[in-house]
Amino acid sequence: MIQNYPHKNVRVTDYASRLVHNPVQQLLHYLASLFPIATWIYRYNLKWLYGDLIAGITVGCVVVPQGMSYAQLATLPAEYGLYSSFVGVFVYCFFATSKDVSIGPVAVMSLQVSKVIAHVQSINPSFDGPTIATVLALLCGAIAMGIGLIRLGFVLEFIPIPAVMGFMTGSALNIIAGQVPKLLGIASKYVNTRESTYLVIIDTLKNLKHCKLDAAFGLVCLFILYAVRFSFNWLSVKYPRYSRWFFYSNVMRNGVVIIFATLFSWLVCRGDPKNAPISIIKTVPSGLRHVGAPTVNRSMITALTGELPVSVVILLLEHIAISKSFGRVNDYKINPDQELIAIGVTNLIGTLFNAYPATGSFSRSALKSKCGVRTPLAGIFTGIVVLLALYALTGAFYWIPNAALSAIIIHAVGDLIAPLDKSWAFWRLAPLEAAIFIVAVIITTFVNIEAGIYFSIAASLVVLLWRVAKPSGHFLGKVKVYQVVENSPVTETRPLKFDPAPWSPSFLLRKFRNESPRSNENLSPHLHSDSVDNIAFDSGSDDIPVAPQFITEEEPSKKPFSKQSAVPPSPVSRQVWVPLDHAGINPSIHVLPPSPGVLVFRPCESFTYPNSARQTDRIADEARKLTRRGVSNLQINLGDRPWNDPGPRHRNLESMAEDTRPILRAVVLDFSVVAQLDMTGVQALVDLKGELSKYADRDVEFHFASVLDAWSLRALVEAGFGGNKGGTVPAKRYTDLALVSSSDNINDNDWAPMIPTDTPFFHLEIPDL
Fold it and tell me: Principal localization (predicted)?
């Protein structure tokens, strides 16, 4: 006896009660989540301290020369890069959910800061660069923290990979082009590095004759950086026993190059430092000379407003992408909203030290990860190294050649350019997105970074809306399949290989570590000795299997099996529903259409206002194509016939071929991939039912399979679907039963319906009507 299981609609109060359930506890949990350090600091131990100390000091040795280089890129004095470096790593550790990310000045953000300074000064030349950069950090930090506090971090997911690839590659090209004149000692009056990338390249080539002695320092430093990098990477592969020593030696290449460049610069310029033959940093104030609240001017904020969107996107997108990547690589989960709060608070506090916008650095984060960092507290040790440099080494910083800093910048951003072979692989993977990326890079090169970012985001949103508005969907047919067990020659598990995408931080991390793509057990299934598929093998010989094929129940004997490669099919078969147009399956398979007068349709997108009309039109057109009207035009008066389908003028029945198509009796909608159903979609289904019922001159049954969303189910029931409110009795009533007990003694009371019994037009799977 089948138990009764009535349908119960989900209630609005059920949803609301979850939002307001125990608000005090939710508030306390929310406040505690703002300080993730409280969840692990009490378990801090000496082993963690050792890992954090090594990683923190190593990153500190790298961030000092990089910070000064990036400050020069931002058109700021070198000390401001050090201010941003130590504040970022100090503050971030208290709010972070990522142990690997290193906060501080980065190349792309520094380039954006330089553009913002130039833009604001073109409006009001009285504003100085450091103040503009600090106010920009204040505004970006406030926006980031606000987005994180109200938990809107998901909006960053609307910025797709082509946008990230486009602005990273375009920015890297722009940075390199802008640093080459400084590398060669070409004066700024000959090359305006704020122009478009192609103009900077042209002007640089035209003015090569104006190179100075700086070129000797810059080119030699750049050559040494790449030579040391490739040499130690090769030695690590050649002598893996000493790979750890080679790694740390390789890491120190920036610092060593700066030390020797400074030494030679001192030897060249010490006689007359005011009239030095090369460009040097000169005076770097010792300590924290610019501590205090920034001076915020309303007119400055007004001038900054137009540059804020791009600045915030660059600040947040790079950080979230890096933190997510290292979380996946090192097996922990980050909280994007909390990371936005962390980056926001870091920049807000940084304004008290006149720091300019700081975000996550890929190269330094990869270095921390490789050094075995254990907790976010490693940032404290990095900050201490930067502070020691600020108080103890500023005298030596006077002699650092600007050409050497340009060499460090060029060397650092070179890895941000997508390689040609990986770009080609991306084209093969997704041509449309790859085209957006290529156009974005071209626009970035020939216009500016902002135009490239805006274009790539806008183009990606247009593609998304196009796909939503014109979704794919399939009319389904049925195939009976048998289970075949293939004897694989594999005797032990073999993890599948994967190659990270060229735009992903995972790929850049492999490149930074000089590692080849490796296997990942969490991403790829294992190949076992036996694999089971619903296939049979057509074989030209007894031993060599060829293309696997689905087989039908009607003709199982026509599909021979290799005696050595497969076991004969199981006598147990099952019915599957596949696209009638053979999308995604072997085109030689014979797919049986549904029963006469039945349509089975599977939408491949949510059934919502942008696309519901288009999908219902497809169903209506298919119904008119495969079925006939319930009442023929020949059976009604000439004046009562529809104007758009009048039929023959005269009733010469003998000259008319009989329409043998069936009359539509049921439409089955497979909602297994429909995530959302809104009011417009429901109304479109109601209109479709009325239209088809009038066409068939009967009440057409509408069946729904796999409606798993409670709100979609409620909407369909309230619209009159699923039950027999109108007196409709299904031609075939299906009830999916399942056991409610694991006992060996099964009786009728141990069976229960899977879905409500008072909605006979709702099904767990597609019914065979």
Answer: membrane
